[in-house]
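Dear colleague,

Thank you for sharing your sequence with our group. We've completed the structure prediction you requested, and as agreed, I am returning the results in plain text so they can be pasted directly into your records. Please verify that the sequence below matches your submission; if there's any discrepancy, let me know and we will rerun it promptly.
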Amino acid sequence: MLALLLAAMDATVMGTVLPDVLADVGGGSGGGYAWLVSGFMLAQVAGTPLAGWIADRLDDRVLAVGATAGFLAASVAAGLAGSFAVLVAARVLHGLTAGAIVVSSYVIVGRAFGPERRAKAQGMLSMVWGVAAVLGPVVGAALTEAAGWRWVFYVNVPLCALVMIAVAVGLPGRAKDPAAKATRPRFPLTEYTLLTGGSALLLVAVQAGSLGLGTAGGITAALLALLALALLRPRGGSLVPRQMLSRTPVAGAALATVGACVVMYATVTVLPVRLAEQGTSTTGVAFVVGLSALGWVAGSMVTGGLVTRHGYRPPMTAGALALLATATLGATGHLPWLAGLTAGLGTGAVTATTLALIQDHSPPDQLGVATSAATTLRNIGSALGANGIAALSATLTPTSATTDPAFWPLAAATVCMVLLPSLTAPRHRTPAD
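Please find the predicted structure tokens below.
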């Protein structure tokens, strides 16, 4: 949980310290600063499937310690960076290792607790994302104010060391599979290229404006992304479970994961801006964002037990309805605090349930790639939500100062991507292992 918290907070802290960073090392001209965030996200997309493949073939301690050591090295490099280029390179390494840490944390817990207790344990891990959404900006601002922005990265060093010692000493080794060792499968380079290339191009497409690529560049990236992902379907299986590429409950869970993250990040991106334009105080805006994070924590914690007792469909459907309420409230402008709360509750419930479903329906020897695929889907949904809703809000004209018509397409997407898959999800748990 500590390792996952470090990786999750690192993804949220940059927005808080960005002004101080640019004033120190430069990079603010021409929109180049966007690469500090985009470089992290793109590298995370590249590192996540690789980590999943490794997790299924090596001892869990190897991936956990190796990823944390890389994260520590990236933190030192970021803290010592004397130029913008070096800092971007450090953030790329941060993204690679953060993706591996996320996969490692979920795989370790998934194996350690087994199918019967896995959902509840994964719910505890999922709440870390909500905690990080609150702590990341706060801790980043406090450290920057007290000691400078470099200490935002230096503080990771002793915590990473603690994680590596705890994992190396306290985590039991995984039983070796002689048959798996004898086969020594080759790394699926073609599948990896299509998966990471398609995902990265999709992220580039939704961030084309901030990256200075323009509308034509965004459309080109989107078309290439769709082509790569279409070619992935007949070639998948080693990095993406085949169940995720066909009409199965796992495919529905994958779609719902993307949809939930789209709603969550669209809400916390646009809602604060709209509230500020209406004259809401900074404290009031922070309250709404904080409710969404706390809702994610609560939704994740409660859902784990519900999945264990009642199966996948009830908590997943409840989460989908909460997200639909978020989109409706966002469109009408009513009760923004409730929109933030239901966004967190719904996302926590849906993502915790879908992760349990994806892991439960994956063979034990594919737990790593199944987890990495779910993580990649979250990253894609987050980017689509944060950037897509901003583009829609800038295009559609509101009928009043409090309404936002961009949330109506979001409501339609919630029905198609989250509610319908939840209604067809299996009623009872059927773990593969």
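Summary note from our side: Residues 84-147 form the longest helix (64 residues).

Kind regards,
the structure core
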